[in-house]
Specification:
mainly alpha; 725 residues; 9 strands; disordered N terminus
């Protein structure tokens, strides 16, 4: 095809727009159809490294000292195409690291800097991330040099940590081990808005009550990391802003002291940029022209960078010495009266009523020129909110304490989504166990697992009780931040022991039997719970005529209450479990969509989900013992009956009650089974039905059994990072 075809409308032998957003998407014809794309994220086909590449192995061979030395040197190696403010890139690199890590939210563990997702849309084009495309490009020579041994995810977080070190902060540590993704994380829900920076009211039941913000969101507006720096919906009011700050940071797992420390530490260095008309910036990186080569927000104002850069629209530095770690933030905040003014870009900012010339920060390009410092509405909240003010006063009086708290909070911010300490790599990884890492003591492996299995089998516990308890213990795992799972046996601790989804009465019955068996065998309860689940599955396999042993890896430990931050585990509580056919209550989101969300967090594929659901149904593991979806005359046997009977055309399906359906014999009209939407979706959705039909075939009963065992083992071992460490 040449240019004349385009101009004249001539026929072209390929489909125009076949891989672009301009083309109509076929599935948009059925907007209510179940979309399984969430389970296909990060398919191996998107990864250029190949199936045999292991980043965790590669990074262990990295010259860690050399990398840090190169990143240190980069901080003051100002480039003409994007010169450093005051000759130091520290502020820019810290902002990049912060905005990568700061997208994390505790509700579902998604976001964060652990995957290098800031390279892709939508994060690479968020209004709050203006100019961070330049930060990543400045790092390219380092990434290019160290190649496969250094991920973008690690490098972007390392850059911010090194920046603080280069400006005088004694950091708490740094761990490598973040593996890059190679495709936008489109499974992450960032909000329902159709436009950037829409007023935040739609995210709240009541915008004046920050706790009513829609879950799982943490940021107050589409395209922001945290809160609007000008105030709630751009209207300055430090007390209202402070309330939003508190809720937003709590949804990132930060308490009030950590919040104040992070706010202060982040604004001790660097500056905001608003010396120009923000409306004249060019398209964001994802919408820019090909000749821009991934750069966005072209700025026609003079040079477009340095003193003329525009990002947030607020203009100025917070401290007298913005390239130095000191106590300048609180000295500035407490020693001046502040009034509202407008930046050159028209944004609200707070400036001192009166300040000595020598206390003003110098211009980023000309040290003979000085400018007023600024504060955002969130900064003013640090002295207007009474709780924040008390914390701020302590930091002001004790700079060493601020440095200590900030260093730890920065480490938490940048490592929160990496999971437990066993996943940390590198010489600077701290040895201390931190409660937010969900520490688990090392488990034992020398006990006789075979003898323990026999005692479990002879315990009188049913297949359903054994399997359900192991499942409930392991299903909390979420790959988004590597939290939850069976390791630690936290199902016996608060808050998990009381969760409705865990059927506390049944759970206590099973644990009362397993605990003495574990103690007698010298095994952890965590191992014993998983082993008991395996015993149940093996009994079900035997009842179905299969002789298959379920793999087991010993070595789990038992966490204690002292090792468990109960409040931080509350967001892990299941509100639905499609695998056990349970909903805590009716939700706006359909049961099948909730099941897909849980499946993706657990790291399972669509075929694995289908195999697990079919097996859990016939083993009679439904929550509360309901019989919906138990499509078999042999409950407790791990047969493929669920799929055989779901696809049986001698039956018809009719609604019976809210969310409940009857499966009736076509000839007699007699009800054979009852089912929920979660059961019938495996026959109604075309993709899920294709998998269900595979397992329903006469020649695939054994394949189903083997696939179930493989998927089950994957769930039981999902949090066994020690096996791959």
């Amino acid at each position: 095809m040449d240019g004349s075809d385009v101009k004249t409308g001539g026929k072209c032998p390929v489909m125009h727009g076949g891989n672009t957003a301009r083309r109509g998407k076929v599935m948009e014809w059925w907007p209510n159809a179940l979309n399984l794309d969430i389970l296909h994220q990060h398919d191996a086909k998107t990864n250029p490294m190949g199936k045999d590449f292991s980043y965790r192995d590669a990074v262990k061979t990295l010259d860690f000292d050399a990398v840090k030395k190169d990143v240190h040197a980069l901080m003051t190696d100002s480039q003409d195409w994007w010169p450093a403010d005051w000759g130091h890139y520290g502020g820019l690199m810290i902002r990049m690291s912060w905005h990568a890590a700061g997208s994390y939210r505790i509700s579902d563990g998604r976001g964060g800097g652990g995957t290098g997702n800031q390279r892709f849309a939508p994060l690479n084009s968020w209004p709050d991330n203006v100019s961070l495309d330049k930060a990543r490009r400045l790092l390219w020579p380092v990434k290019k040099k160290y190649g496969n041994k250094l991920s973008w995810a690690d490098l972007m977080i390392l850059a911010g940590t090194v920046a603080y070190e280069s400006m005088g902060l004694k950091t708490y540590g740094f761990a490598f081990g973040r593996e890059d993704v190679w495709h936008p994380e489109s499974d992450v829900y960032w909000g329902a808005e159709k436009e950037w920076l829409e007023p935040s009211d739609g995210r709240y039941e009541d915008v004046d009550k920050p706790e009513t913000m829609e879950n799982p969101l943490a940021a107050v507006q589409m395209g922001l990391i945290y809160v609007n720096p000008e105030g709630v919906n751009g209207k300055p009011d430090p007390l209202k802003t402070g309330a939003q700050v508190r809720e937003t940071f709590a949804r990132m797992a930060m308490n009030d002291e950590e919040t104040v420390a992070l706010t202060a530490g982040g604004h001790t260095v660097g500056k905001t940029h608003g010396n120009g008309d923000a409306s004249k910036l060019g398209p964001d990186p994802e919408g820019a022209d090909v000749c821009d080569q991934g750069f966005g927000w072209g700025n026609p104002n003079e040079t477009g960078h340095g003193r003329y850069a525009v990002t947030s629209g607020i203009e100025g530095a917070w401290t007298t010495h913005p390239t130095k770690w000191d106590n300048g933030y609180f000295e500035m905040l407490f020693n001046h009266d502040w009034e509202l003014r407008k930046s050159p870009a028209g944004a609200w900012q707070w400036e001192p009523v009166d300040i000595k010339e020598e206390d003003k920060p110098v211009d980023v390009e000309d040290p003979s020129i000085r400018h007023n410092p600024i504060m955002t509405d969130a900064d003013m909240a640090m002295i207007k909110d009474p709780v924040y003010r008390k914390i701020s006063e302590r930091f002001y009086k004790d700079p060493a304490y601020l440095s200590e708290v900030f260093a730890r909070a920065w480490f938490k911010l940048t490592h929160r989504d990496m999971g437990p300490k066993v996943r940390y790599i590198g010489p600077d990884a701290p040895e201390e166990d931190l409660i937010w890492q969900d520490p688990v003591p090392e488990g034992k492996t020398g006990y006789n697992a075979g003898a323990l299995k026999k005692k479990i089998a002879d315990s009188g516990l049913s297949i359903s009780e054994l399997v359900s308890t192991a499942w409930d213990s392991a299903r909390t795992y979420r790959g988004s931040d590597m939290r939850g799972g069976a390791n630690g046996a936290r199902i016996r601790l608060a808050p998990q022991k009381d969760w409705e989804g865990n059927e506390p009465a049944r759970l206590q019955k099973v644990l009362s039997v397993l605990e003495p068996l574990a103690k007698e065998a010298g095994a952890s309860l965590a191992d014993t719970i998983v082993l008991a689940g395996n015993v149940g599955v093996e009994q079900a396999l035997k009842a179905a005529g299969h002789k298959i042993e379920v793999p087991f890896e010993a070595g789990r430990g038992d966490a204690t209450d002292e090792m468990t931050d109960a409040d931080s585990f509350k967001p892990l509580e299941p509100i639905a479990d499609g695998y056990r056919n349970w909903l805590k209550q009716d939700y706006v989101v359909s049961p099948e969509e909730l099941m897909l969300d849980r499946t993706q967090l657990m790291g399972l594929t669509a075929p694995e989900m289908v195999a697990l659901v079919g097996g859990m149904r016939v083993m009679d593991t439904n929550h509360g013992g309901t019989k919906h979806g138990v499509l078999t005359g042999r409950p407790g046997a791990l047969t493929n009956d669920f799929f055989v009977n779901l696809t049986d055309m001698n039956c018809k399906w009719t609604p019976a009650d809210k969310g409940i359906y009857e499966i009736c014999d076509r000839k007699t009209g007699k009800t054979k089974w009852t089912a929920t939407r979660l059961d019938l979706v495996f026959g109604s959705n075309s993709v899920l039905r294709s998998y269900a039909e595979v397992y329903a075939q006469d020649d695939n009963a054994e394949k189903f059994a083997k696939d179930f065992v493989a998927a089950w083992t994957k769930v039981m071992n999902a949090d066994r990072f020690d096996l791959a460490a």
